């Protein structure tokens, strides 16, 4: 009996290394880019933009506002809570799930990467991706120009200072800053 082989999309969504140039995944990326292009060229019509985001994202809350341009790889791996604001020129590479809680604000030019690549050159040449989810808690404020790397979790009510590079996970109720980001202050509840 022959074993069923997983598709590259199944491997990706299960958190396993996968071939990034798989034809189905390339088609998924194309569809996401078409929706992003429609979103980015849309008039100032929040109801139209929300309808496009509902097609693009795996889930989005009722109160969501994103200022174009916005770019992502797949879209269906982005799960956004209610009352989310994302400012101009953000990039979300969503090979693994990117989960954003409720009442969050994300500054302009923020990049969230839920994919990495192998250290060995042969695997990179073969276009292997390593998906690692990113989770952002409720009531998080992310300043402009922040970069969040694969596999990171941000606790509830945390503030990330502008231009920080977040390389590891952080707990609830802290202010983090720097490259690499570190805790600079606890926030009283």
UniProtKB/TrEMBL annotation:
One of its GO terms (molecular function) is acetyltransferase activity. It comes from the Bacteria. Keywords: Acyltransferase, Transferase. Pfam families: Hexapep (PF00132), Hexapep_2 (PF14602), Mac (PF12464). One of its GO terms (cellular component) is cytosol. Residues 1-13 have a biased composition (Basic and acidic residues). Residues 1-20 are annotated as: Disordered. The keyword Acyltransferase applies. SMART domains: Mac. The keyword Acyltransferase applies. Residues 9-62 form the Maltose/galactoside acetyltransferase domain. Belongs to the transferase hexapeptide repeat family. Acetyltransferase implicated in the O-acetylation of Nod factors. This is Nodulation protein L. It comes from Fibrobacter succinogenes.
